[in-house]
Specification:
Strand content: under 5%
Strand order of the largest sheet: 1-2
Number of helices: 16
Helix content: 55-70%
Number of strands: 6
Shape: globular
Structural class: mainly alpha
Radius of gyration: 24 Å
């Protein structure tokens, strides 16, 4: 106690935050994810009358070791990160591996010479987790990415354009020019473009926020932007329509453009940008429908797939039968016929899961995605700098938009687009890109949850220094 009129001497105080105990919870959840994956794999093997082999034990051991290594990287270099992000992805990745292995068994019955794809997916999981760990270790602060915003934007556009310029033999598959083929393997550059362009969008909106918040005419309760400020929106629109026209990739076109609109709305809180953006995209989509045959085929299969059940509508018809067969509780892992759906391990893995796990199992998978997206949005709210807020919101929103496009297309809610389900579907490019996305989100989460350290009572907190706040228009 001090006497009235006297003040306590102020001396510098250094507060060292303790190591969070949430990492132990993360490790426990990762072990639980390994148990779920192992039990699911054993159920598939039992129902398919397969024996427990040393390879099966090796796969489960490698799976657990991979994610424990990723956990150790987070524990050492991002100790305050959200403890739910990595375990949720581990469960999704594990269920995807189990379902891909299940589809391999079904394919081997019909064709003894078919090559298993689960081994390749496990290899890509190794590459993805390694890339995740490297980003967590090397990216000390997510704000470093804002310095390279324009470089990321240019790199993202180049990766997006390359497949359109390559000959069809090196870029086209199933009618879409979205690949870059190398001897022995191929990549889908649009998966990496979405991350690079999100970094670019966030950096531009932070540096040029005045361009997007300038007041224009007030119409129908909305503050419309000035005509000269519409250039960024028009550039994004031209790029998305170009992807739809020249690469025949409806999913990437919609994903990139919708992600841009979400970030713009988060930064400006103006509905007018979204209304104008959606109007432009609708106009481009209508024009593409009347100009390009592949768009008409997609829309026709959406409206009435049974008009050509043995031709262009065959895939959608089989997917609908899979949903109907699964019912509420499913046929059980290993007891269904998911192999009857073409491309079941990639575009239609949701239909395969719904058939064998039913509506309850599919709802559980979607709930995992929902929790992951919510935790990403909570990270955006908690982080202290505007670039981190926009980037985290963009990354989480991209996952939400992609999930809606995939599930909506498979269930015939919207036209089918050809996107893959993050961490579930077979595909190395998608798996690696989404692990890199997760690593950036983990890094932002670490900075958002890290305790504020004060040097002295009258000094501002270190964690709050040199941060920006998004200004409302």
């Amino acid at each position: 106690m001090t006497e009235p009129g006297h003040t306590q001497p102020q001396s510098p105080v250094a507060v060292t935050p303790p190591l969070p105990t949430r990492r132990n919870a993360e490790l426990l959840l990762l072990c639980f994810a390994a148990v779920i994956t192992t039990v699911a794999l054993l159920i598939v093997e039992a129902n398919q009358e397969q024996g427990v082999t040393l390879d099966l034990i090796g796969y489960t051991t490698a799976y657990l070791a991979l994610f424990v290594a990723a956990h150790l990287a987070i524990r050492r270099f991002a100790a305050y990160a959200d403890p739910l992000l990595l375990p949720i992805v581990a469960v999704l990745n594990g269920l995807g591996l189990v379902m891909i292995h299940r589809l391999d068994l079904a394919a081997s019955i019909d064709d003894a010479t078919s090559k298993p794809t689960a081994n390749q997916q496990m290899l890509w999981t190794l590459v993805g987790v390694l890339g995740f760990s490297l980003v967590v270790i090397l990216l000390k602060d997510h704000r470093q990415l804002s310095r390279y915003g324009y470089v990321c934007g240019m790199a993202g556009l180049v990766l997006l354009v390359i497949p359109a310029l390559l000959p069809r033999a090196f870029s086209e598959q199933n009618g879409a020019k979205i690949w870059i083929r190398f001897p022995g393997f191929s990549i889908q550059p649009a998966e990496f473009s979405k991350i690079l362009l999100l970094i670019f969008f966030a950096a531009v909106l932070v540096n040029k926020r005045g361009l997007f918040t300038s007041a224009g005419k007030h119409v129908l309760g909305m503050n419309l932007p000035r005509p000269r400020d519409l250039a960024p929106l028009l550039v994004a629109w031209v790029a998305s329509v170009g992807v739809m026209i020249f690469e025949k990739d409806l999913g990437t076109s919609l994903l990139l453009y919708a992600s841009f609109l979400v970030i713009v709305y988060v930064a400006t809180e103006r509905v007018s940008w979204v209304v104008i953006g959606m109007a432009l995209f609708a106009a481009g989509s209508v024009a593409a429908y009347y100009l390009f045959n592949h768009v008409q085929v997609r829309v026709q299969n959406w409206l009435d797939p049974f008009s050509d059940p043995e031709g262009s509508g065959y895939q959608m018809v089989q997917a609908l039968f899979s949903f109907a067969t699964g019912g509420i509780f499913g046929t059980g892992l290993g007891n269904g016929q998911p192999g009857t759906v073409p491309e079941a391990s990639t575009d239609f893995i949701i239909a395969a899961i719904s058939e064998e796990l039913g509506l309850v199992g599919l709802a559980g998978v979607l709930m995992l995605y929902t929790i992951l997206i919510i935790r990403g949005l909570r990270t955006a709210l908690a982080v202290r700098d505007s670039f981190g807020k926009l980037l985290a919101a963009g990354l989480a929103s991209t996952l939400a938009i992609q999930l809606f496009i995939v599930v909506g297309g498979v269930t015939k809610l919207i036209p089918l687009t050809g996107l893959t389900t993050p961490w579930l579907s077979y595909g190395g490019s998608s798996l690696l890109a989404n692990y890199l996305l997760l690593a950036i989100l983990v890094r932002i989460s670490h900075n958002a949850r890290r305790p504020i350290v004060s040097l002295a009572p009258n000094q501002p907190p270190l964690a709050a220094a040199s941060t920006e706040v998004i200004q409302k228009a």
